[in-house]
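Protocol check, entry for the methods section draft. Step 1: assemble the input record (protein sequence plus ligand SMILES). Step 2: submit for complex structure prediction. Step 3: store the structure tokens unaltered in the notebook. Ligand used here: 5,10-Methenyltetrahydrofolate. Step 1 record:
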Amino acid sequence: MTAQRIDGKAAAEALIGRVTDDVARLIRDHGVQPGLAVVLVGDDPASTVYVRSKIKRTAAAGMRSFDHRLPGDVSEDDLLAIIARLNADPQVNGILVQLPLPKHISADRVINAIDPGKDVDGLHPVNAGRLSAGTAKLVPCTPRGCVILAKGVRGTLAGLDAVVVGRSAIVGKPLAQLLLAEDATVTIAHSKTKDLADVCRRADLLFAAVGRPEMVRGDWVKPGATVVDVGINRLALPDGKSRLIGDVAYAEAEKVAGAITPVPGGVGPMTIACLLLNTLIAARARAGLPEPMV
Ligand SMILES: Nc1nc(=O)c2c([nH]1)NC[C@@H]1CN(c3ccc(C(=O)N[C@@H](CCC(=O)O)C(=O)O)cc3)C=[N+]21
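Step 3, stored output:
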């Protein structure tokens, strides 16, 4: 038996469709057009591609898009000054600073400078704290996308054994919090975890977010498990082109899993859809309106 291939692209299109409808209602009934500012420092080719795609999607959903491209040697003070302007701009509801930042800039200081109400990445300590308190509005986009995909397959996650491999602030930790809020039994595993393969084999829901190509092998997967691959590793090919591969050895895992996300076409598209959702949530909150019913 071959696992169901989870279509993240289709799920993202569906979510973006619902967000787009709600944006149109917001403009029509309240005269509010959500706006997203994306800040890119430097000219890393992969980051440039993602940022371009985010800007295109934002506009297609009926939102305003503000594009700030800064040279790789911009000073931290200049970047902080731009954040301060975006914080004060009423047309800007969401601010995303593309990570990673160059070494001479403290990502911590930059994230701390973003108005928590505009922090559509959900990385500000206030939003991270709210997530752990169970009162979050803006939660990190990739984890939110992972949970939506898992619920799409399983319906409820209550009582399921979830294993998250990876403990980053942007994926692993917030993902564990979201799964806990769904009443899953959550384990966070990482590079120092003993008997990692055995831990993974206990998972009804296995999330791989380590950034190591094909680290999770087929025999780490419990038969019938739902596998969500967060890894996006760009592998250079001899012909100068590149190929994206995940953190899961897909060809092996699909023989064992019940359902599995591909790379590309899995979690990646959901990340962008959730960014638009967060921008909508921020704009509605700013206007004193309840959360969208998307
Ligand atoms: N502050 C911040 N927030 C982020 O959310 C953030 C970031 N920084 N830095 C970089 C990573 C990466 N990221 C992706 C989003 C979508 C795809 C995506 O749509 N990928 C497509 C393929 C795209 C391709 O072919 O290159 C897919 O998986 O199907 C990938 C990667 C967001 N990130």
